[in-house]
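Please fill in the sequence for the structure shown.

STRUCTURE ENCODING:
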């Protein structure tokens, strides 16, 4: 994003390297230091672990958004990331890596409320655009899930990255 928060920048091009290769290369280069934040289905992480069985020992830890202690967002008992690739989730959870798992029961309570969204919409151009998108998202989650916030699921994997 532009520093002055008044304009949007062009998106960056995707990297040419496959995610599995990127994970393995980063883990090799930063053995014992790398914390992997898995914010979607664990497919690429599981493939990397299958290709390089030592990967789990190379990682400091894995923070994963998965599961729930009370309900899911796909079925009453299943959260999306595990539902989308249960075999990959099983590979990751059985890998021996140190894992911090944040469930839907936590991520569905962490989000942006109407007051936050109003402040964004009242702000400069970029904030206004984000606010409009969050307003749509919040209305949808209210209608479908009965939540009064726009959940910020993925950001829940990030705080443990900062000791």
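FILLED IN BY: designer on duty
SEQUENCE:
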């Amino acid at each position: 994003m532009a520093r002055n928060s008044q304009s949007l920048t062009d998106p960056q091009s995707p990297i040419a390297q496959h995610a599995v290769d990127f994970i393995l290369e980063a883990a090799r280069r930063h053995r014992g230091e790398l914390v992997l934040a898995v914010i979607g289905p664990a497919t690429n992480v599981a493939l990397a672990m299958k290709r390089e069985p030592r990967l789990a020992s190379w990682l400091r830890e894995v923070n994963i958004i998965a599961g729930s202690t009370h309900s899911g967002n796909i079925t009453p008992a299943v959260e999306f990331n595990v539902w989308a690739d249960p075999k990959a989730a099983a590979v990751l959870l059985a890998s021996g890596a140190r894992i911090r798992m944040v469930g839907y029961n936590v991520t569905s309570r962490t989000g942006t409320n109407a007051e936050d969204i109003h402040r964004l919409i009242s702000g400069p151009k970029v904030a206004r655009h984000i606010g409009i998108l969050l307003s749509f998202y919040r209305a949808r989650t209210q209608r479908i899930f009965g939540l009064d916030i726009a959940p910020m699921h993925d950001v829940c994997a990030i705080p443990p990255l900062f000791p």
